[in-house]
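Still learning folds. Look over my entry:

…
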Amino acid sequence: MRELMFRRWLWGLAAAAVFAAACGSSQLSPPQTELPAPCNAPPLSGDVVIPSVLSPANGSVTGAEVVARLCDGGASAYLQRTSSTTSPPNRVFVSISSATVDRTRDFQIASPAGATRLQLGVSVGLDAAQPGVYTEGDTCGSVQVCAIFPPPASVQCPPVTGGDICPPGCMGSSPPFCAPTEPATCYLANTNTDPSCTGSVSNAQGAWHLTLSSVESYTGPESVDPDYDLFVIHGSLDATLVKIDTGGAATAGVGTSTASLSLRF
């Protein structure tokens, strides 16, 4: 259970570092502005989630360079209190991420053209596991959405073993081999936090408004580990995200550098 839940939680903490490294906007074409029709996502992926503790999420992301609808169940939300032995220890986090069997169907994408999928990662640290209204000013963490594109056909990645380093344009995968890096256009909101929250220090950008209408302790079979407390949550998240460049910094430009994310779970 510990490995199962933390694989999902750590994705939320590492999302900015992983996806920001691939961010770019060179593949954009004239955007569509209307949201696609409502949709339903495929089943959750059993190897990375505990369905009975997760609340299905739906919503949308809209901006000058990204317009998409998050299908109902295309992402899911839960709350977890970490253990005394984890890093960071004894922290309460709301986690929301897209992780179904077919991630290309988590979102219906109107723009950017050519994007194969969108990936959502939310990790927001709270002071307590209780209902309430929270903003970036009294929480910590990050909210991120990335539009993922297919890698250029010209990129060829040789297989590697052991400690070999992948060449430019390639990234390590599992089992140990190199695969082409997928370009991405990413939007981020995060707080200026210390390592006790996210494990790193970053510059604050964007904003969010998180409402937890209900927080209930989860007592299912996966909650037997005394080092972890799990909670079923319902509520909403509205965020203003800032487009980031390959270094994770906010991009310049008026009217094209932000996107609005709206989620219900």
About this structure: The radius of gyration is 18 Å.
